[in-house]
User: Fold this.
Amino acid sequence: MAPLAAQKTGFIDSDLILGKMPEYKSAQKQLDDFAAKWQQDAADMQQKLDQMYKDYKAEEVLLTSDQKRKREEAIVGKEKELFQFREDKFGQTGELFKKREELVKPVQDKVYDAVQKVAKKEGLDFIFDKAGGALMMYANAKYDKTFEVMEELGIPTDAPGTTPGNSGK
Assistant:
């Protein structure tokens, strides 16, 4: 059995890196703006639906069975419309998901490319992202490659609160 060669590893904090990238902040702001507008649109639709229901309940005793049926169908139609709007905007394949892909993925790809360059330049076999949910019980700060990736991206590393091991994790 041949002995295994030692593997060199490093880690980064992608939250710190992304938080320092103006293009990521801009993309996140755009996403937040889209989400806020669509939330308001949904709230407006819900308010109209609630008013339709209140009006129906208030007038129900005065309506013929045919009028009741038409009103109930209109309310059900509005409920379906609201559900479909929410699904179209916030669902797993909705517009917010597509906008996130369009706006954030290029920034994440840029970070990924920088990580690969740093790993190759330093001869690392693995780089973990401590912000990505990877459980790390211990990490020697000398293996933190966050700043090297930031330098590769041209992000200043001398900002307050960005000392190794103090990136908010």
Q: What stands out?
A: The two ends are 40 Å apart (CA to CA).
